[in-house]
Write a structure and sequence with these properties.
Elements (H helix, E strand, L loop, with lengths): L1 H15 L6 H34 L2 H26 L3 H23 L4 H17 L2 H23 L16 H97 L7 H24 L5 E5 H18 L2 E7 L4 E5 H19 L6 E9 L3 E8 L30 H12 L3 E7 L5 E8 L3
Parallel strand pairs: 2-4
Antiparallel strand pairs: 1-3, 4-5, 5-7, 6-7
Length: about 450
């Protein structure tokens, strides 16, 4: 069985396997190779039978049959060689043309009633339809019909005198061989055509089944995705409800805080020139907190005020407020400005975005050992103020970097220190309130992180 399988593979690779890259061309070449290979086998067998009969019987009487079989065999071998040489289109046209010319020659010579001629014409129509296309087959059908009618008319009106000696002649092996060859070709073509139709139907049924299965899977995926979206929407609604409640409580708290802070500021100012440096610092901090409270309350009441913002002044106030927190965790906080720059917008939102970035950096450094520092660098060009905040913490893991600006995404949920809205709020503020962009700068494991915000510069 192994040797037979190996032999079948050799025959398939040598004589039948198509070499065309195009799907339609490959199918046509495959059919042509099967047809020519089968014909080559049949003509070889016919050649052997004719040769043996020629040697055993009257050689002169059977020489014509043998020579015809030899010529036909050579033609089939040449056509098969052309197809296997990569010129299957040429081989196809030659094959169909030879069939048509052979039928025409027999029709003209031996009468329009000659069975071999009619069989050759039928074969020409079938082969041209399968190996070329249906339109060519239809053209050959029209040509054959017109030829049959024309030759029949000429012969019936005695304008052409065909050789009718075959009508009363005795049967011979040549006739049997010719009938056998033509019928074999028709049978092979019919088999190939039916097999290709069956294959196409099986592929169509298989594709239909696959499409139905894919449709069912898609419906399941849509249902699962819909449930996931509904669950996500429910969770988001709960989060928004929680933040709305937090906002109402914050508004009430800010309202209650504003009066005591104002009173504390007035009391500290009554010390006049006798207050110490520490008291002045406390007074400045309370004034800054009071300003935050008033601005935040205005923001909650949708009373946003846009004005010209001094970047250096605001950074000085922010770092002064956060310095005690940084010192508590042994973090050195430094600022570098290359000039005096101004923005235009809501001062509270600018303070919030800087606060968020600095508090994130402080959180990243809390668990670190050794020297810890946060550096604020401010640069500018004609259009932008570029604010960069660097820290020397552990850095941001690679799988978190594309999610850090997403709403409600946090890595601090387990210890309750994060809600996942800090960087999302910063991104929204930078883009919508200051017409800029923010991105994660350099960040490598163990080498810290940096955030770079480009803010539209005020004139």
């Amino acid at each position: 069985m192994t040797h037979l399988h190996h032999l079948n593979n050799l025959i398939f690779n040598w004589f039948i396997r198509p070499r065309s890259a195009d799907t339609d061309s490959s199918r046509q070449e495959y059919l042509l190779n099967i047809l020519l290979t089968s014909l080559a086998a049949v003509t070889t067998l016919a050649l052997i039978i004719s040769g043996v009969h020629f040697l055993q019987v009257d050689r002169q009487h059977h020489s014509t049959s043998l020579s015809g079989t030899i010529i036909f065999s050579i033609i089939i071998y040449v056509l098969l060689w052309l197809s296997r040489s990569g010129r299957f289109k040429l081989s196809t046209y030659l094959f169909v043309g030879l069939l048509a010319l052979s039928g025409l020659q027999l029709l003209w010579t031996y009468s329009f009633e000659l069975p071999q001629a009619l069989l050759l014409f039928a074969l020409t129509i079938v082969v041209s339809s399968i190996l070329l296309n249906a339109r060519v087959g239809l053209l050959f059908t029209a040509g054959v019909a017109i030829t049959e009618l024309g030759v029949g008319y000429l012969q019936l009106t005695n304008r052409d005198q065909p050789d009718l000696s075959w009508v009363g002649a005795d049967f011979n092996y040549g006739d049997a061989i010719s009938y056998g060859l033509v019928l074999s070709i028709i049978g092979i073509v019919a088999w190939l055509s039916n097999r290709e139709i069956d294959r196409s139907l099986r592929r169509a049924r298989s594709s239909e089944s696959a499409l139905l299965a894919e449709r069912d899977n898609l419906e399941l995926k849509v249902m699962e995705r819909t449930r996931e979206l509904e669950q996500a929407q429910l969770l988001r609604s709960l989060e928004l409800q929680r933040f709305a409640e937090f906002g109402r409580q914050s508004a009430s708290l800010l309202h209650d805080m504003s009066s005591p802070l104002m009173a504390a500021t007035i009391n500290l100012q009554q010390f006049g020139s006798h207050k110490s440096r520490l008291l002045r610092q406390v007074s400045d901090n309370i004034q800054q907190i009071e300003r935050y409270v008033v601005s935040a309350r205005s923001q909650l009441q949708q009373q946003t005020v846009h004005k010209r913002i001094s970047v250096s002044d605001e950074l000085r106030h922010i770092t002064k407020l956060l310095k005690p927190l940084a010192l508590r965790h042994h973090i050195r906080l430094s600022t570098k400005l290359t000039g005096s720059y101004y923005l235009y917008g809501d001062i509270v939102k600018f303070n919030q975005l800087v606060d968020n970035l600095l508090l994130n950096a402080i959180d990243a450094l809390q668990e670190q050992s050794g020297a810890k520092h946060i550096r604020i660098v401010v640069e500018a060009n004609k259009r932008w103020v570029i604010l960069t905040i660097n820290d020397n913490g552990a850095g941001i893991p690679l799988d978190h970097r594309d999610k850090i600006f997403s709403p409600f995404y946090t890595t601090k949920a387990e210890d309750g220190r994060g809600l996942g809205i800090g960087l999302s709020t910063v991104k929204t503020t930078v883009e919508q309130d200051f017409g800029g962009t923010i991105r994660l700068g350099k960040s490598a494991d163990g080498q810290g992180a940096s955030f770079v915000a480009k803010l539209k510069r005020a004139a």
